[in-house]
Design goal:
Elements lengths: L1 H18 L12 E3 L3 E6 L4 H16 L5 E4 L8 E6 L9 E6 L5 E3 L1 E7 H4 L4 H16 L24 H10 L1
Parallel strand pairs: 1-6, 2-3, 2-4, 4-7
Antiparallel strand pairs: 5-7
Helix pairs in contact: 2-4
Pfam family, one: Peptidase_M10
GO molecular function: metalloendopeptidase activity; zinc ion binding
GO biological process, one term: proteolysis
Length: about 180
Amino acid sequence: MKKSMWKVILTGALLYTAVVLPPASAYTTLGGKYASSTISYIPQGLTANYSLAMADGIAAWNNANVDASFTYTSNVSAANLVLRQDAYGANIGWNARTANKPVMTSGTYTKSDIDFNTSAMDGMTVTARKGTAAHELGHVFGLDHVTDGKQVMSIYGVRTTSVPGPDDIKGVNALY
């Protein structure tokens, strides 16, 4: 009787894990995306460290097997994405942030801003800054955070990569 009960409990637990719990490595989305798969960007006031991080992040996405890309524009009014940096403070809880506009859980983005917090990021390695840039660019595409540290959309401190992982790529391709 006890063996039978344990088998039922174990089977139920395994079934619950397989069916109910989402996979830790799956992509998640914010709900919105751009109408076009080509997103234009312009840096404004980036120092060399942040220009390099952003260039590396853009190259990481543009070299990934995704159905969307970033392209430079010198016309600020034509840019979908504006890149900036400022010293927002070391203890505010974020290294960089992306604001997609209009803010929505579904629909089409028309503008995005990425702000690098130099107070938090100046002490990072070049690779960590590149990973942060690639992560924020994933938000511009419409991706949300994941828990798998092998994906660039994982949060800083958990993330072990600076380039898009397989699930990041699947997420962008599902959106575009």
